[in-house]
Amino acid sequence: MQSPKGTFDILPYGADEPWKQAFLWQHLEKVIRETATDYGYGEIRTPIYERTELFSRGVGDSSDIVMKEMFTFLDRGERSISLRPEGTASVMRAFIENKMAQERPIHKFFYLGPMFRYERPQSGRYRQFYQFGIEAIGSPAAAQDAETIDLLWEICRRLGLKGLKLDINSVGDSASRLAYRESLQNYLRPYFDDLSQDSKTRFEKNPLRILDSKDPKDRKLLEGAPSILDSLSAEAKEHFDEVKTLLDKIQVPYTVNDRIVRGLDYYCKTVYEISADVLGAQNALGGGGRFDGLISSLGGPELPAVGFAAGIERILQTMLAQQAPIPAQRGPLLYLLPLGDDAKRTCFTLASHARHKGIAVEINLHAKKIQTGLQMASKLNARFCAIVGSEEISKGVVQLKDLESRQQEEVPIDSLIDLCLKRKESL
């Protein structure tokens, strides 16, 4: 039996690639949680599947995600269900369903979890992949846009990532997009027969999606396309200028890229993307933007919102490629090495009592040789090893070896747990 195509296991040890080690994920998730909390965001957890209509209405039925990539099936009640391809629509559904708008004027959430898209697996792109993201609801201010960008940038900084690029753009308000839609269609109409089939489909329905095309011929044709920045309304331009001003003030470097539109239909005004220079074609770490009309389109109140999503796998791969500082994998504080049946019973009791006191303990119940046991203790990255044999049992002691300094001392069994607690505090 093998895992389904486009999926992978995250293991405590023995992973075939370094980024699939669980302790790396735990480190990254710890940084994410701490940073999001510092910025005032609280965790939200939603189901991994929803009614398909949520994504067709929320993500956009002309997006690649809805048109090609969703895992969709009928449940036993003949209802169309889809595994979530992204997190924002689910968060908005939860916000509306739980009537959270009544709780406070501004709402700030973060989430972590698996997403699912049926696409061709390749390096940095999987059918089950993991994202973290944030959503800020209730403020139309450019400062809220800049805060989300700063939060993603700060997470990358705390992780020790370097050589990152932040691209920002504005896709304007509805008036801006209406004006740009006509301008873009007028430009592309003479080249219509040369467009990819997907872009031909989008030409009338949502021509801005053509800017997101990966087809080489489309990309070539788009080189001379008009800029959406030339179609911004006065209000949308003022908003974008303020975002840039605030980023300048907090010294977050950026590049204005008028081809950044993001792959989801709900964006308006600010859009952005952070990429790394070490991942090849799949180099985007995360991105997002503003989506003021999404909540009302799903039946909720008319509230502005902005947020981002970022890929866990790509960030981990970037950390390893750049040799970013990563804490050593934590092992047990104490490794118990009993020799003989009586010693095994004694050590089992010791291990239980120590664990109840908050001491991480591993016990080798199959040890036959001290040297082999010490090698296993070192492999597990244990700090101390307590050797217990028949002679130690009769004397009521253990031989405690510091695996870092290599020093060994005789310690009364009754004092071992208290000693480990003191050593734990000093480490």
Report what the structure shows.
The two termini are 43 Å apart. The chain has 15 helices and 16 strands. With 427 residues, it is of the alpha+beta class. α1 (22-38) runs antiparallel to α5 and α5 (142-158) runs parallel beside α9 (234-249). The protein has two domains: 18-173 and 233-321, Bira Bifunctional Protein, Domain 2 (BirA Bifunctional Protein, domain 2, 2-Layer Sandwich); 334-426, 3-Layer(aba) Sandwich (Rossmann fold). 38% of the residues lie in helices and 20% in strands. The strands form three sheets. The chain has an eight-stranded mixed β-sheet. The chain has a five-stranded mixed β-sheet with strand order 13-12-14-15-16, sandwiched between helices. Strands 2-4-3 form a three-stranded antiparallel β-sheet.
What is the structure about, briefly put?
This protein is an alpha+beta fold and 427 residues long. The protein has 15 helices and 16 strands. The longest helix has 17 residues, at 22-38.
What's the topology here?
Blueprint: H1 22-38, E1 42-43, E2 49-51, H2 52-60, H3 64-69, E3 72-74, E4 80-83, H4 88-97, E5 107-116, E6 128-137, H5 142-158, E7 165-170, H6 174-188, H7 197-205, H8 216-221, H9 234-249, E8 255-256, E9 268-275, E10 284-290, H10 294-297, E11 305-311, H11 312-321, E12 334-338, H12 341-356, E13 361-363, H13 370-379, E14 384-388, H14 390-395, E15 397-402, E16 408-412, H15 416-426
Parallel strand pairs: 1-5, 7-8, 12-13, 12-14
Antiparallel strand pairs: 2-4, 3-4, 5-6, 6-11, 7-9, 9-10, 10-11, 14-15, 15-16
Helix pairs in contact: 1-5, 5-9
